[in-house]
Each structure stands twice: as C-alpha cells, then as structure tokens.
Amino acid sequence: MLSSLSQEERSRSEHNLLNIQKTHERMQTENKTSPYYRTKLRGLYTTAKADAEAECSILRHALDKIADIKSLLEERRLAAKMAGVYSDTDPPRKTMRRGVLMTLLQQSAMTLPLWIGKPGDSPPPLCGATPASSDYVAKQGDKVAARVKAVDGDEQWILAEVVSYSHSTNKYEVDDIDEEGKERHTLSRRRIIPLPQWKANPETDSEALFSKDQLVLALYPQTTCFYRALIHSPPHRPQDDYSVLFEDTSYADGYSPPLNVAQRYVVACKENKKK
C-alpha cells in the first residue's frame, strides 16, 4: 500500500519536473523571460515542492512501519530465547556454526537504518559516531562492545548482547555473542559501549562520522572482537564502510593494511594512548 502511494507521488512529481524542464527549454528558445513564464514557473516549483514533501512524508511513514516490524521481530526473538524456543533464522548459540554467525552479523550491519532527518535536524545519539547520552541504558537484546577478561587474564573488547541492567548496582549482564564463548558477564557501565543504532549519511551528516586518523575500536573482520584502530578513510556514500588500520605489531609501521568495517561495528575508543 505504502509502496503504491509512493510510486503515485513519484509519478506525479516526475510529470511536474518534466513540465519545469520544458518551460525552461521554451524560455531559452524564445530567449526571453516574460511575466507569463515567471508566473508559470513559480506555480510549477510550488507544486514540485509540495509533491516532494508529500513523497517524503510517505517514505518516512514507511520507515516508521519498518522500524515497528523490526522491533516486533526482536521482541519475539527475545521471548523465544527466554523460553528456549528458536527459529531457523535464530538457532540456539550452542548449535550455531561460525559461518552462520558471521553472516548474521553482516546482515545486521547491512540492515542498520540510515538516519534521515528533516532539514535543520541534528543526528541523534547513537547515530554513527555520535555517542549515547550520559544517562543512556542499553535495552535487553541490544548489541554492545563489552570489555571482559579473557581466559589468559588479559582484557579484551567483545561483541555482546545485553541480557539485563540493574539500576541498583549500575551493572549489566551481557552474553558473549560468540557461540564458542558461552559466557555471561556482569559488567559496570564503563565497560559497556552501545553500538550505533543508525548509520550516518556522509552526504548530509558527515559530522556524525569518525574522521581520518581518529582512534576507534573496530570489529576485526570475521571475528567477534573489537580492536584498536585508526580511521584510514570514513564512508563517502551511505552504503560505504569505514576503512581502518588495526594496530598490529607484526607490521613495520605498527598497523595493518586498510580493512573495511561497517558503521555498525565502529565505536569510540575509551583508551587514548597507544599501548
């Protein structure tokens, strides 16, 4: 239904834009700008603006519906997880193959919604590089970067899913997203970094992206761990990834060759000094 309405608005808009183009062509042919043409163009542009606003309204409504559907699916997934019931698209962690997990993480990055604000709007918290507000509490099911102690005693940042948050202790319970971990961690807020909930559009909101040479934590490709990296180049188009240089002492300059990481999995680094 919404798709049909959008197409109708698009067709009406295209017809009006064609009239604007033809009017300009006639003006150039006659080499004059008469009061008639000025009045006609003013009316055509007014109509074109109204058509664009109507189409924009329909598309925003469609995006809201998509967000509602995704939220409902996530609620059902969490309810099934708590009940011990799983679907084919969300198998239990103990049976999930690593290849399946990597595919799910990639899909999560690809389907992260693009922030599309109205003229004059600023990107909200958790849009791209924009941090969460100081009092923000991640919800059950949210994906976060979590700093945990590894088996060897070293600390590392892992991709985790929020299980719960206690306001009395100010601590999270999170699950390691990696099936091989099978661990639940109780962590303070300072050990949790919420992941972006929207992609920032480089063409309209470049200020909401990390800039070149900025230090970040990025999910290393084909793993579920975050490592320190420098931004090699930010995205240039909405569908682009970051290009990052991971800290790696096996290379002469201390950094890996450029690797692509989706906006979904790049967050601010809380440690400023290089180890």
Total helical segments:
3
Compute the gyration radius: what is it? 24 Å
Can you summarize the main beta sheet?
Answer: 10 strands, antiparallel
Average predicted local confidence, pLDDT: 87
Pfam families: SGF29_Tudor
Domain SGF29 C-terminal: 134-275
Keywords: Nucleus, Transcription, Transcription regulation
Subcellular location: Nucleus
Write the layout of secondary structure elements.
Blueprint: H1 2-30, H2 35-83, H3 98-110, E1 143-149, E2 155-166, E3 171-176, E4 184-188, E5 192-194, E6 215-219, E7 225-233, E8 242-246, E9 259-261, E10 266-268
Helix pairs in contact: 1-2
Protein name: SAGA complex associated factor 29
InterPro entries: SGF29, SGF29_tudor-like_dom, Tudor_SGF29_rpt1, Tudor_SGF29_rpt2
Keywords: Nucleus, Transcription, Transcription regulation
Overview of this protein structure:
This protein has three helices and ten strands. It is α+β, with helices and mostly antiparallel strands. Strands 1, 2, 3, 4, 5, 6, 7, 8, 9 and 10 form a ten-stranded antiparallel sheet that branches. The longest helix has 49 residues.
